[in-house]
Amino acid sequence: MKTYSRIYDCFRWICINSFRGLAAAGMVFGFFMRLLAPRKYRSFSKAFDRYLEKAHISCPHFSNKMACLACHFIYGSSVNEFFLYHFAELNHRGRKKYITEINRYRLYAAFNGAKKRIEMQSKYRAYQAFQKYYKRKVLYIGKDTPEEEVRAFFAEWDRGILKPDKEGMGKGVEAVRLSDFGSTEEAVRYVLSKKDHVLEEPVRQTGLMRELHPQSVNTVRIYAVRLKDRIEIFGSHLRSGRGESVVDNAGQGGVVVSITNEGLSWTSGIDEFCGTFYRHPDTGVLIPGMVMPEWDKAVALVKEAMDVYPDIRFVGWDVAYTEKGWIIIEANDNGQFHGAQIPHHRGFWDQMQQYMTEL
Fold it and tell me: What is the residue extent of each domain of the chain?
């Protein structure tokens, strides 16, 4: 029995600490997936191929696909996390330091409870709860939304930002401009056709945040955690859009850069397809060394907002600097950690476990 145990332990060590062993383990997982869950395997395979088409990398296709599959089962990582966190180059100990797509739910369950708050999952409910900090008008577009409300909105602003009420990562977000329609009535009909969406007053950025990329609302994600005797800022990162995109999410091609607790950008920019940028690819703004305006007010804003729902103890706040000062764009009680970990090239699971001991 001891002999079998030693053989198994040796096999397991090789699988999790060497790339070839990881790829071999993935082949085993892949064999059983194709046999027992072929649809899920095809879905994984397509996601892997789509990512490589967009990514700024070249690698052996099959061995990396199998290693990626093994990491999904062993560490709960997604396809993009396998590459962004350089799992192929790390050993077991290094990979375990990252907060991956699956184990982030364990983290949020520990801080915020297993049951998610609808106020955080619905953009409109979040607006109602944190209206004081949003500092802008938001309309809910449902089956009973009066035409007069949308018409009054466009009488005040010539454009708005339309977002799915319960989607994340910038999916489905679009700018609705009156100039793109033949008439105001046509714009109103289009907006009313988008059920379960929110229509937001345009955010007018200023200073550095506008210069970085004028087409998108460039936000800072500030992670705040409520401990026994204090609210602490876990970390922050700036997201900026690219091209004509109105969103800044890294998953939609945006650039991410880490921000210190003093409000200074100190890393190069990076996107979720392994691209690295010393200057913004569109505007040429130098990324390392940017100073966030009135940073102390941004920190004070999110700490105050944390008191609205004291039982939600870990929140990723998306804030933007505008003509009205810092405002909240969104609140996330189960957000991803790509932007927090990618610029640092290291994971924060150990630090989050330390916070858990202080709850």
Answer: 2-96, 107-132+204-356, 137-200
